[in-house]
């Protein structure tokens, strides 16, 4: 078999199984093309993508404006490293900081790197501005969090699969229950060395857990009272996914085309990734105001590829698409429709217990145990019926299509989903 021969699905899966590390358990489907809300497998079958690469492809597959910016920049200048300036990074930093209303941006590549950056920034601020004794800083995190896969990040995960036999673990983290303000207040009052509170506005990987309405604003107020940095990991919830530019936007007018990103809950440190590139390229970023970001000095932190001109060009295009195409508003409208229609179905269902989410980040709870394979089997049947989704945590199926979907397409998808679920009713 020549390297460039067109493979069948089976051949492609066999190759990955034989030559690739088994660090994922993919749904058996082999994709070779994507456009907008659709992807196609190597045999040419078309699917609706209801994962969007874990919300990286909010702008739709191969968006021409994003791909155009990427190709154009790739033919001009790809990488200088930060040893020299390039003529794209500053433009991206200006555009993104104005969009999200922060003084400064620190560019990285992946979400986990951006989380690591935020943790380092928070600790350095704690020692140099807040005045915590060296090596004593603690950062509060939530149970069932997902922030990535590095050694430090998995140190404060409570997923045994992600953690076991990867120790020794990084110290300096205190874990509290999510959506529990009392637990946060207790942790803040019982310890003088708290530097930050790292939180997902909605816990995506944990199964799309939406906290109480006032949780984020009250948590932010508690952090302010105790001079602790509120760090929002919006890698999955950000960039219009939940019906607003950011999930921390509350009820501001972020769904507006010309939103300046004035959030109801303004994080001290904002972490972005995934859809910051529309799925074209790894682009992540940490945003903060000068009083925090200025603790980082030359040599303190960096990345060879972080802030490269291709990433910068893509980042600008990806954010422009969100605004130009009103994707926050579309996610909000379609999300309401999706939950309303699924709720109607669930009233008479024995196989689905609930639907929950915000904007187009939603999940259904399958009426079976967490270790059952019902959700997996439903996803296989959805695939056969032309729609791709994946279980998260056993009996929960996440539904997160690209935000460029039309109402007609969504209704078509809802009919595929409900017809498929009907096959599993007892
Ligand atoms: C995906 C994700 C990350 C990690 O991003 P990677 O690019 O996979 O490293 C971090 N935080 C959240 C909330 C995520 O969803």
From TrEMBL:
It comes from the Bacteria. Transmembrane segments: none annotated. Keywords: Aminotransferase, Pyridoxal phosphate, Transferase. Gene3D superfamilies: Aspartate Aminotransferase, domain 1, Type I PLP-dependent aspartate aminotransferase-like (Major domain). GO terms for biological process: L-arginine catabolic process to L-glutamate; L-arginine catabolic process to proline via ornithine; L-proline biosynthetic process. GO terms for cellular component: cytoplasm. Belongs to the class-III pyridoxal-phosphate-dependent aminotransferase family. This is ornithine aminotransferase. It comes from Olleya aquimaris.
């Amino acid at each position: 078999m020549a390297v460039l021969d067109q493979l069948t699905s089976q051949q492609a899966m066999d190759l990955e199984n034989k030559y690739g590390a088994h660090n994922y358990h993919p749904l058996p489907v082999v994709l070779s093309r994507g456009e907008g809300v659709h992807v196609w497998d190597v045999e040419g079958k078309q699917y609706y993508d209801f994962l969007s690469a874990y919300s990286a492809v909010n702008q739709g597959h191969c968006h021409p404006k994003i791909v155009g910016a990427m190709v154009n920049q790739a033919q001009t200048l790809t990488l200088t490293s930060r040893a020299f300036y390039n003529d794209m990074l500053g433009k991206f930093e200006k555009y993104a900081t104005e969009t999200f209303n922060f003084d400064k941006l620190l560019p990285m590549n992946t979400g986990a790197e951006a989380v690591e950056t935020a943790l380092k920034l928070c600790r350095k601020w704690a020692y140099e501005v807040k005045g915590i004794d060296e090596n004593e800083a603690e950062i509060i995190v939530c149970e069932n969090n997902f922030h990535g896969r590095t050694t430090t990040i998995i140190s404060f995960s409570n997923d045994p699969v992600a953690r076991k036999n990867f120790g020794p673990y990084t110290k300096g983290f205190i874990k509290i229950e999510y959506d529990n303000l009392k637990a946060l207040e207790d942790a803040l009052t019982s310890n003088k060395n708290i530097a930050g509170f790292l939180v997902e506005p909605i816990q995506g990987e944990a199964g799309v857990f939406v906290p109480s309405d006032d949780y984020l604003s009250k948590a932010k107020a508690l952090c302010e009272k105790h001079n602790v940095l509120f760090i929002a990991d919006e890698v999955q919830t950000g960039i219009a996914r939940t019906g607003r530019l950011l999930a921390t936007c509350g009820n501001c007018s972020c769904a507006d085309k010309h939103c300046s990103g004035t959030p109801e809950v303004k994080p001290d440190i904002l972490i972005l990734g995934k859809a910051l590139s529309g799925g074209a390229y790894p682009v992540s970023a940490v945003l903060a105001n000068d009083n925090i970001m200025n603790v980082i000095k030359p040599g303190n932190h960096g990345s060879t590829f972080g802030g490269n001109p291709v990433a910068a060009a893509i980042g600008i295009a990806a954010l422009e698409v969100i605004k130009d195409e009103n994707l926050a508003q579309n996610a909000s409208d379609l999300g309401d429709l999706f939950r309303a229609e699924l709720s109607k179905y669930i009233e008479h269902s024995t196989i689905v217990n609930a639907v929950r989410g915000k904007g187009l980040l939603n999940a259904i709870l399958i009426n079976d145990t967490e270790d059952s394979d019902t959700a997996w089997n439903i996803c296989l049947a959805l695939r056969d019926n032309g729609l791709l989704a994946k279980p998260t945590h056993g009996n929960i199926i996440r539904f997160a299509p690209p935000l460029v979907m039309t109402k007609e397409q969504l209704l078509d998808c809802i009919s595929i989903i409900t017809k498929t679920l009907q096959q599993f009713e007892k």
